[in-house]
Amino acid sequence: xxxxxxxxxxxxxxxxxxxxxxxxPDSNLVGVVDASTERALSVADALGTEAVADYRELIGRVGAxxxxxxxxxxxxxTKAMLENDIHVLLExxxxxxxxxxxxxxxxxxxRGLVFQIGxxxxxxxxxxxxxxLVAEPQFIESQRIAPYKPRALDVSVVLDLMIHDIDLIHSFxxxxxxxxxxxxxxxxxxxxxxxxxRIRFKNGCVxxxxxxxxxxxxxxxxxxxxxxxxxxxxxxxKSVTSYVKKGEGPVETPEDVRIDAQSFGDTDAMxxxxxxxxxxxxxxxxxxxxxxxxxEALETATVIGDLAANK
Length: 311
Description:
With 311 residues, the protein is of the alpha/beta class. It has helices spanning 12-23, 37-47, 74-83, 98-110, 125-133, 157-173, 269-281, 291-309, and strands at residues 3-8, 27-33, 50-52, 64-67, 87-91, 115-118, 139-145, 177-185, 194-201, 206-212, 219-225, 229-234, 239-245, 257-263.
């Protein structure tokens, strides 16, 4: 039996979500919602579904929604859906404040609903491959830069871009934070456009995280250093290379290092994410990125954002 679904917010990213929910056999996309009636009608017409004027009109009509509206609306829209027993796949970040996030998580748990946060990189095959190679990270370096676009400017680059890497770092380190230092600057918008953070964890791991939305190119790089290996991932091209020390003692020649490269080519992380969400809705277990995981990423991002804004 298919799940009746809808997508709320069909801008560039939301339209892509709608395309996935229209394509999946477990989904019956009954409508799309957008603040722009013209935009909603255009996307609905392309996908053979209905343009719905107000997200509240979905209550009683659908069993699950994907919310891709601006971050400032996440709390209001998600709360309305959860209160009416509708499962939610919510674009990151989970909310703008920890109080909002906590309330949404507790509401979803109380009602026994699937509340999944759209940290899309978790479904990147390069990240999935890294998970098998990373055991005890000692130093992590990430860089996520992108050209300036007039979208998602209701939040800083920390909540817009850096939060992806914050979530991945937490998934690898699994230790409480010890200290954070951060700096950020406004350049083109009224919020922070470029930021760097240094996170120290209680287990000794250190992460250096850089994000910018005013670059001339797009780059999503993640590097993890361990006691006997170095793992480098290009999340844009979906490739991973590991450099592993073969024996005991220091490396003295190139032959002392085993190099393994993997490339995953054409995959669709957004389709995989939507499919996993629907499987959880149908009783397939807890989602990969629960509301509590999304809340953890927001908490770190909030600390970084506050520090960066005051330096």
